[in-house]
Amino acid sequence: MHQCEYPYCRHVNHETSAQCEVCSFPLDKSLLKSADYLTQQLAKLDLGPIIDFHQILRNDVHALDKQLRMMKILKVERCLLQSVPDQVQSIQGNKALAAVVAEFPEKFVLSQYVSPMAGPGR
Ligand SMILES: [Zn+2]
Protein backbone atom coordinates (compact mmCIF):
# COMPACT_ATOMS: atom_id res chain seq x y z
CA MET A 1 0.00 0.00 0.00
CA HIS A 2 1.34 3.43 -0.91
CA GLN A 3 0.00 6.95 -1.33
CA CYS A 4 0.19 8.50 -4.80
CA GLU A 5 2.68 11.36 -4.87
CA TYR A 6 0.82 13.41 -7.46
CA PRO A 7 -0.35 16.41 -5.38
CA TYR A 8 -3.85 16.53 -6.89
CA CYS A 9 -4.45 12.81 -6.44
CA ARG A 10 -2.95 11.40 -3.21
CA HIS A 11 -4.96 8.22 -3.69
CA VAL A 12 -4.00 5.38 -1.38
CA ASN A 13 -3.17 2.49 -3.70
CA HIS A 14 -3.84 -0.98 -2.40
CA GLU A 15 -2.31 -2.78 -5.36
CA THR A 16 1.44 -2.93 -5.73
CA SER A 17 1.92 -1.74 -9.27
CA ALA A 18 4.28 0.52 -11.15
CA GLN A 19 1.78 3.37 -11.19
CA CYS A 20 -1.19 4.85 -9.34
CA GLU A 21 -4.40 2.95 -10.07
CA VAL A 22 -6.35 6.26 -10.27
CA CYS A 23 -4.12 8.76 -12.09
CA SER A 24 -1.26 6.60 -13.45
CA PHE A 25 1.40 8.66 -11.66
CA PRO A 26 4.48 6.40 -11.57
CA LEU A 27 5.68 4.93 -8.31
CA ASP A 28 9.21 5.65 -9.51
CA LYS A 29 9.20 9.44 -9.91
CA SER A 30 12.50 9.38 -11.81
CA LEU A 31 10.51 8.07 -14.80
CA LEU A 32 8.99 11.55 -15.14
CA LYS A 33 12.38 12.74 -16.40
CA SER A 34 12.53 10.08 -19.12
CA ALA A 35 11.41 11.29 -22.55
CA ASP A 36 10.89 7.67 -23.65
CA TYR A 37 8.62 6.92 -20.68
CA LEU A 38 6.58 10.11 -21.21
CA THR A 39 6.24 9.44 -24.93
CA GLN A 40 5.00 5.92 -24.22
CA GLN A 41 2.46 7.23 -21.70
CA LEU A 42 1.20 9.91 -24.09
CA ALA A 43 0.82 7.36 -26.89
CA LYS A 44 -1.58 5.38 -24.65
CA LEU A 45 -3.99 8.30 -24.39
CA ASP A 46 -7.08 8.12 -26.57
CA LEU A 47 -7.88 11.80 -26.83
CA GLY A 48 -9.35 12.06 -30.31
CA PRO A 49 -8.62 15.01 -32.59
CA ILE A 50 -7.16 18.06 -30.85
CA ILE A 51 -6.72 21.67 -31.83
CA ASP A 52 -4.07 23.30 -29.67
CA PHE A 53 -4.80 27.00 -29.24
CA HIS A 54 -1.66 28.11 -27.50
CA GLN A 55 1.77 26.80 -28.26
CA ILE A 56 5.18 28.40 -28.32
CA LEU A 57 8.32 27.18 -30.03
CA ARG A 58 11.58 27.63 -28.19
CA ASN A 59 14.50 29.09 -30.08
CA ASP A 60 16.10 25.70 -30.44
CA VAL A 61 17.08 23.91 -33.64
CA HIS A 62 15.09 20.85 -32.53
CA ALA A 63 11.96 22.69 -31.39
CA LEU A 64 9.97 22.21 -34.59
CA ASP A 65 10.86 18.51 -34.84
CA LYS A 66 9.79 18.00 -31.22
CA GLN A 67 6.57 19.92 -31.81
CA LEU A 68 5.69 17.88 -34.90
CA ARG A 69 6.53 14.62 -33.10
CA MET A 70 4.34 15.49 -30.11
CA MET A 71 1.50 16.62 -32.36
CA LYS A 72 1.63 13.21 -34.07
CA ILE A 73 1.71 11.31 -30.76
CA LEU A 74 -1.13 13.35 -29.25
CA LYS A 75 -3.10 13.52 -32.52
CA VAL A 76 -3.08 17.33 -32.54
CA GLU A 77 -4.49 18.28 -35.91
CA ARG A 78 -3.77 22.01 -35.85
CA CYS A 79 -1.87 24.30 -33.58
CA LEU A 80 -1.95 28.03 -33.00
CA LEU A 81 1.61 29.25 -32.61
CA GLN A 82 1.87 32.06 -30.10
CA SER A 83 4.44 34.68 -30.99
CA VAL A 84 6.44 36.90 -28.67
CA PRO A 85 8.16 40.31 -28.92
CA ASP A 86 11.44 40.39 -30.86
CA GLN A 87 13.28 41.15 -27.63
CA VAL A 88 12.49 37.66 -26.32
CA GLN A 89 15.41 35.52 -27.40
CA SER A 90 14.37 32.17 -25.96
CA ILE A 91 11.10 31.83 -27.93
CA GLN A 92 10.48 32.17 -31.66
CA GLY A 93 8.81 35.39 -32.78
CA ASN A 94 6.79 36.59 -35.76
CA LYS A 95 9.39 36.09 -38.50
CA ALA A 96 10.49 32.58 -37.48
CA LEU A 97 6.92 31.41 -36.87
CA ALA A 98 5.75 32.80 -40.22
CA ALA A 99 8.34 30.54 -41.86
CA VAL A 100 7.01 27.55 -39.91
CA VAL A 101 3.42 28.32 -40.94
CA ALA A 102 4.52 28.74 -44.58
CA GLU A 103 6.17 25.32 -44.47
CA PHE A 104 3.25 23.57 -42.71
CA PRO A 105 0.10 25.59 -43.47
CA GLU A 106 -2.13 22.58 -42.79
CA LYS A 107 -0.74 22.15 -39.27
CA PHE A 108 -0.06 25.64 -37.90
CA VAL A 109 -1.82 28.98 -37.56
CA LEU A 110 0.20 32.03 -36.56
CA SER A 111 -0.81 34.43 -33.84
CA GLN A 112 1.51 37.35 -34.52
CA TYR A 113 2.75 39.57 -31.76
CA VAL A 114 1.89 43.26 -32.11
CA SER A 115 3.31 45.65 -29.56
CA PRO A 116 0.67 47.63 -27.66
CA MET A 117 3.05 50.57 -28.17
CA ALA A 118 2.74 50.30 -31.95
CA GLY A 119 0.12 52.21 -33.83
CA PRO A 120 -0.63 55.42 -35.71
CA GLY A 121 1.51 58.34 -34.63
CA ARG A 122 4.06 56.24 -32.73
ZN1 LIG B 1 -2.62 9.09 -8.32
Any overview of this molecule?
The protein is an alpha/beta fold and 122 residues long. It has 2 domains: 1-44, no CATH class; 46-122, no CATH class. It is 26% helix and 17% strand. The chain has helices spanning 35-44, 63-74, 94-103; strands at residues 2-3, 12-13, 50-55, 76-82, 108-111. The radius of gyration is 19 Å and the shape is elongated. The mean pLDDT is 90. Bound molecules: zinc ion. Zinc ion binds next to loops.
Q: What attributes does this structure have?
A:
single chain; 122 residues; alpha/beta; three-stranded parallel β-sheet; two-stranded antiparallel ribbon; elongated
How many H/I helical runs?
Answer: 3
What is the domain total for the residues? 2
Widest sheet, order of strands = 3-4-5
H-E order: EEHEHEHE
Number of strands: 5
In terms of structural class, how would the helical and strand content be classed? alpha/beta
What radius of gyration results from the CA coordinates? 19 Å
Mean pLDDT: 90
Ions, cofactors and other bound molecules? zinc ion
Please report which band the strand proportion falls in: under 5%, 5-15%, 15-25%, 25-35%, 35-45% or over 45%.
15-25%
